[in-house]
Design goal:
heterodimer; A: alpha+beta; 7 strands; 40% helix; globular; B: alpha+beta; five-stranded mixed β-sheet
Chain lengths: 197, 171
Amino acid sequence: MCNQGKALWRQLMCDTSKESLLRTALNYTRYGFNQLIGHSLDILRIQVSTYSLQRVVEYTQSPEAETVAVHLRIGDTLPGQAILVLSMPDAMQIVNWLMDDLPDPITELNALASSALAETGNVLLASFLNALSQLTRQSILLSPPTVVVDMLATILEVVVTNAAPFTNELTIIETEFQHTESDLRLRFWMLPELIDV
Amino acid sequence: MCEANKLHTVPIGEIFISTDPADVLVVYGLGSCITVCLYDTYRQIGGMLHALLPGGTQNGKPDSVSHPTKFVDRGIPLLLEAMINAGTKPERLTTYLCGGAQVIKHITYPHTLNIGRRNIQAAQAALTSLGLTINAQTTGGEVGRTIKFFIRSGQVTVRTLGLGESILHPK
């Protein structure tokens, strides 16, 4: 990883204060959500945790919970992974907000719902990373989004598998958002590839 | 009267050996990883490996830096060795192979290309080279599985989202 990338990841992991680069970029995520869905989000918490691959299972308190994740790989100067994680009911709520002109609410994750979630994830994650790119004047590339529906532990295993050849530890920068008027929550994970940091 | 079950989560890249009939070894949401369960009915000894990547070699030599049991090809011989150290004999073992799903469909990293299938192939090759026959398996597919291994009975159960729980019957 280049030195610029290392420095930027360090900055994101070490400074979660009110005026930090991380919070500033996360506010663009809130703005992106508001523009796309027409609802507001608050930042509930930001947490940086590091686990050995063996202990990462402790991260999930409900490992078998049905979970929807939108996954992107980040490249160029900030290599890593970015993932939006939602419970199935919250994912369905977002889909129905997006599709508010449909006569009947969508209740299962069909192709239309999956596509809507991929777009939501793409907009939120891209809002954050574009903001970060502009604020730091560094180039950050994204892979296309993938929607995964499975147990929370399975989704965590996907990110561990991606990171495992480079490291025996996993650092997760987690931001939890809550809808301003309901209990709907989104979790946003960023996982740096800290090969030799 | 039977003692209450004691649940032990087997972390990624770990081996767990048990001689306690009350133990239940579990891996939640197994995706492209594999678990190998070995069971000695005669001695009620069970062992489980939870491995992440197919091969633990770099440039043809063993990768000495990484945790060896995160690799299928290095973890399986270590699982058998740990079972023998616990008092079993290879000819008494029932072997179960689980996992190797392809959860994420597009290629995000070159090393995760067909990672589930490569884990299965690595496990089959390692088990064969050790003279172990796979008696039952649930492998491949596109969804995660929760695997429970009951030391009292040697029974292995598989749970997937939407399909409930079933018993993996050995041949």
